Structure formats: structure tokens, C-alpha cells
Amino acid sequence: MEFMDVVLRRRTYRKHFVDRPISQSDLDTIIEAARWSPSPFNIQPWEILVVTKQESKDAVAKLVIDSMSAQMADAKFLHDVSKWMRLSKDEWLNRGDGVMIDDHLDIPGFIKDKTRLRPILNNAKNMSFLGKLGAGKIGASHFADLIRKSPLILIVLLKRHKKSPGENRAVWELLGMGAFIEHILLAAISLGIGTHFINAALETKKDRDRLRAIFSVPDNYDPICLIRAGYIAEEPGTSVRLDKEKIVHYERFSEG
């Protein structure tokens, strides 16, 4: 597969994976690709935790339910998320960013025209009372089921004691972590393996501490992201990106 084919094929896979383990050979390929990621001064500030045991996946799923339920009761979080929700494919394609609401919320089937939800979306912060009543657990249960039935979860860790030189070291270290994660995603899809971030479990310090406790992660390691992975039965759907004219500047910055 050509490199650009791999790049353009990569999508967030929000469905159930094929019910079979990822082969050790494919896992080794993904890890080897990640191992050769660039980092500032070649400090390689990463480690990766490979999770396949069912009891561990169940524990992550429980943490995600608790985290997502708390998010649904947080007015600011709902307001921030609402700005990136798109209610129709036309809106999504025209704007070139954000996510389709169907991919993140279970919309009742009788609501055919989702644009009618605009008044609710515009006042999403006022819906936090539903989260306080426990409504968040309804949507969270779907994601928890995806986690429980995933063949593999990867937890990417930042080693805080491996510091990059320089005043801006935190940014340089995160650049390296981003490259490490991207290598994982691209290597995976080149093997027919889909990936899906499940970062609700990392939203707050309390959540991250619970995750550390589950997997005995030392305090000087920061969980950066969780990725569920597995072989895909079908190609994921389309996605959108901003036109290059909106993100590229030549010689000097110019506002278009």
C-alpha cells in the first residue's frame, strides 16, 4: 500500500472489531513503527502498555462510564463539545471540520431531520441537569461495550523524567508523543487494523490516577492516550478536512 493510501485510509473506527486477537506479528510491526518515531534530542519519552486481559478491559470500561457520566453533567464540557457537533452531512462537508452528531450520540430513529436539534445544541450547557440525573450512563454504556469487546487496548505513557532540553521542553516532548501515536495509527491501518481513541478515561487527574492504580503505573509516567484496536470487518466511513487554502500560508501569514 502506498504511503498516501495509508494516510487517507486512516479513520477513527467507532464500531465493533472482528472477534479475533491481533496477531503477535502485527502487534510487533505496530510497536516497531512506533519505536522509530522522532523525538527531541532522541530522548524517546514514551512507553506503551499492551492490554488484552478481559478483567483489565472491563476495568477501563467502568472508568469510561464514570468519566463520561461526569462529562455529561458538566455544563462547560457540553458547551465546548457542542461547537464541534455537525447535524447534517451538508453542514459537515461545507464546514470541513467537526464530527457528525450520530457518531457520538444515540439519536432516536424517529428524528429524521437532525437539524431540528439546533436549538438544543445551541443551549447544550443547559442540558447538564440530565447528566446529573444519570443520563450520561446511557450513552457511555455503548462505548464501554466497545472497549470490553476490543481485542486490544494500547495505553501510551509519557516518561516525565526524560526531559527535553530547552525552555519550551513541554512542547517538544508532546511533539514526540504525537509522532509516536501517529506511527501507531498508520502502521495499524496498513495491516487492516482499526483504531479508536477512548480518552474519556483521561479527562481529569482523578481519572488518570484511577487508571494508574488499575495498571500499577508509577507517578512519574503520564498516560497520554488510550487506543482500542482490532481488525476491521468493513472500511470506516468518510471524513472531512479543511481545504488547504484555509491552512497554508506562503512566505507570510495572511488572514483569508
- Span between termini: 36 Å
CATH superfamily of the largest domain, by name, is NADH Oxidase
Q: Order of helices and strands, N to C?
A: HHEHHEHEHHHEHEHE
Q: How would you describe the shape? A: globular
Strand content: 5-15%
CATH architecture descriptor name of the largest domain: 3-Layer(aba) Sandwich
Major sheet characteristics: 4 strands, antiparallel
Extended strand count: 6
The structural domain count equals 2
Q: Number of DSSP helices?
A: 10
Mean of the pLDDT scores?
93
The order of strands across the largest sheet is: 1-4-6-5
List keywords for this structure.
4-stranded antiparallel sheet; NADH Oxidase; alpha+beta; 2 domains; 256 residues; single chain
Quick recap of the structure?
By secondary structure, the protein is of the alpha+beta class.
Structure commentary:
- The protein has 256 residues and is an alpha+beta fold.
- It folds into two domains: 166 residues, NADH Oxidase; 60 residues, no CATH class.
- Helix content is 43%, strand content 13%.
- It has ten helices and six strands.
- The strands form two sheets. Strands 1-4-6-5 form a four-stranded antiparallel sheet, with helices on both faces. The protein has a two-stranded parallel ribbon with strand order 2-3.
- β2, α5 and β3 form a beta-alpha-beta unit.
- The two termini are 36 Å apart.
